[in-house]
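Mods, move this if it's the wrong board.
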Amino acid sequence: MITLDGLTKVFPAPGGGDPVVALDGIDLQLDAGRVHGIVGRSGAGKSTLIRCLTGLEKPTSGRVEVDGTDVAALEGGALRAARRNIGMVFQHANLLDSRTAAQNISHPLEIAGVPRAERQRRVAELVEIVGLSGREHNYPAQLSGGQIQRVGIARGLAAEPKVLLCDEPTSALDGSTTHQILTLISDLRERLGITVVVITHEMAVVREVCDTVTLLQDGRVTQTGDLLDVAADPHGALSAELIPLPPAPTGIEALVVNCDYGDSPTIRTSDDLVRRAETYEAAATIVAGTIETISGRQVGRVQLALRNYSGAPISREGLDAFLRELEGEGVVTKEVTA
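Not the wrong board. Structure tokens:
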């Protein structure tokens, strides 16, 4: 559905200094009908990538293909027609205060010259799809933050695009409303078969709604793949952010070990770690951890406090043997205390 091939964007520096490389040879393939997350810190190139995807920015070099059309090669009316295949949802919906929810949804259709009867039919359909029935005649001042974002999503879908780009769609919302909007995005993908690209810095958003994820750093792709594979890869740049390990309690009379699992064919849950310790006559207690279920698979980063059955820390020999066995089964371990 979306193919980026050698995408590069270089901006000339003001005052004649060194040019700024915003995107540096990005190669990326986003499959149709999936929710893809693009994450990265400020300055990573996310905003420039969006502008290139929508044709608002011309790449310095490379190809930006959306549904078989190279957007970067288009101009004028051809570019405007291609943009109708791409809907946009922003962090702030920026609705027109003088228009009702239905009129805001209808606005892009008016600009496109869609006949009135067809606009009304489409708006009524979208109001039902995004869960705004009964609110379509309200003005923005009469809507909650979540309802305003639903109007923004409906507006982005008005022209029946094949791709929906969501730029930080939940950053301005509280936790409960965020969950509702992410559920809506997931439902839209299922109901409409639309391809969704979510630009975000919130890892909770990625965990909840995305099928695949890409990390941008300094204008380059440093990691990309299915969410489960990325989260379960303890050596990857994104694993620690997707599955963060909270600080362990202090003053523990035990040997403490970090264990990252999810990519192991045999260690599938934290209980498996605890049971494995028992084979070395050790009692294992989880003292800190983050455990997430992604695509039906448990992925976790936990800290185990290991003691023998007398309550003393496990022996050095027992610990080394335990860690060797875990590492042989795909669990990444790191001793925290000696």
